[in-house]
Amino acid sequence: MTAKLIGAVMIEAACAFMGFYASDRLGKRKKYLGNIISAMSVLETEISFGANRLKKAFEAVDSMIDTRGLFSAAAERLEKEGVRRAWADAVSEKKAELRLNAGDAEVLEMFGGRLGMTDTDEQIKNIAHVKGLLAEREKAASDDCAKNGKLYRSGGILVGMFLILMLL
Known about the structure:
Blueprint: H1 2-50, H2 54-64, H3 70-81, H4 83-94, H5 102-114, H6 120-167
């Protein structure tokens, strides 16, 4: 009897953990998209007022805002790979850590394709455009988190209870 009880508690804990973990991933995606939007604003300021080289601007952004090293990873690769390839590789590398989905990564990669290719005014326009796209994605992530977060938490608990009932 004790073994059954311990097994039941372990099953419930594992299922609840999986539900809470899935819910947490939704919340972190929303958070990191917000951080990236803020980082884009800082980058915009660095480019327009600081007149910094792109590498220094990327490093400054990462020192101010938590983007899990996205901008630093791109800065490290800039001289070897060029802007477009360095940015795309950094996005690919940090995609999982930032909890980005394929659409989020696509928007960020599009940003890197135009960065450093034009004058300051065009780069500012590009950053503003990408910030708008990311804001839309952040709103969708927020809606998704509100809609599905509670579902995942409750679902994990209920699936655990269902499994326990099936096994007893």
